[in-house]
Amino acid sequence: MIPPALRAALVSLCLVLLALEGLDWYAHDVARRYVAALAPLVFEQKDQGALLLDTAFAQPDLLPLYGSSELRIADPDHPSTLFRTYPTGFAVFPVGKADTTCLVMLEKLAAAGPDLRGKKVAIVLSPVWFFGRDQADPAGYAGNFSRLQANALAYSTDLSFDLKQAAAVRMLQYPATLDKDPLLKFSLQQLAAGSLAGGALYYASLPLGRLQTLVLRLQDDWETLRFVTAQVGLTPAVAHQPAPLPWRALTAQAAQDYSAQANNNPFGFANSYWSNQAGVIQRTKNQQTDKGFLHVLRHNKEWTDLDLLLRELQGAGAQPLLISLPIAGTYYNYAGVSATARKQYYTQLSAVAKKYGVPLQEFADHDQDRYFLIDDGSHLSPKGWMYVDQTLDAFYHGTFP
What we know:
The protein is mostly helical. The chain has helices spanning 4-38, 44-48, 51-57, 79-82, 102-110, 128-131, 138-144, 147-154, 161-171, 182-193, 196-230, 247-259, 271-282, 290-299, 302-316, 329-335, 339-356, 382-396; strands at 62-66, 91-95, 120-125, 319-324, 360-361. It is globular and about 85 Å long. It starts with a helix and ends in a 5-residue tail after the last helix.
């Protein structure tokens, strides 16, 4: 006979589990109903969580778009705006903010797990990640770090051990992000050790790690529900307005409109950017060299992270597209980096894409296009966005490359 105290404890535990299961079911239902309305919006829970990312991959008319600061720029030619009413049958689901580099994307996509299989996903790369520094900035990485996403990667049973081990080595190079999660830190250390003992200790920590990931997912459910219910006037219904997109005319108009906003400097940068940064930019004349550029490019750890990202997507059975923004060639000529040196970036990127059989749009032919970018950080102009929009449309409909 079960003692009354134990019976009461078991009943309480069952009620708690039922409540948590109910919360999870309700959160998934709300996410499914509102994901289209939330798709073009940028907010922290979308970047830091997993529920909305999972839900987006389940929608056949949403194209997840992972990138960095360029996704936060308000522009009528931005894909979040242009495709908002599903003119050609889909909308984009942008994920990312400043310093969302390949290692961060690796963690974000790990949270989607088996939901990636067979799904299309577009990845936007910024070239300055690969030659502006030797690896992602620690402060920028920390600002994008998500305990849930990192735990999802470390304790995934879908990813290979070798991939998790290589990812652990990179994640441990940003130790400050792990200080508040001793279990995750311990597991990553055992993974990275590359020894039989380390492997055994990692697998010993795996059940507790998966439990911790489950708790973090439930917290994400709750925070997502809080966010959705706090949005006054948000409705699940999203207007679908099929319409032709005359790309040639749209691109010509975008180029014409932008040229009038970029006429106070020799680089084709936005007038507002030049007004704020002219002094800084002018001091960089001939301050770089091909040798220095190529040294950083060849030894940059971002290549390691990109390789891991593509390994993850390949293993998950996803269908990725790589989009690289072009280098601001007119500026780098001025700074002292030749077109020949810059070509090495495009060549190396093409080799990585070819290695994994991933389609690539690198816009190398716009390297010296004065009106394709608004600054030296490779942020797109309205004209640049029109080219990216057309690429995304072709990719979604299966006509790229």
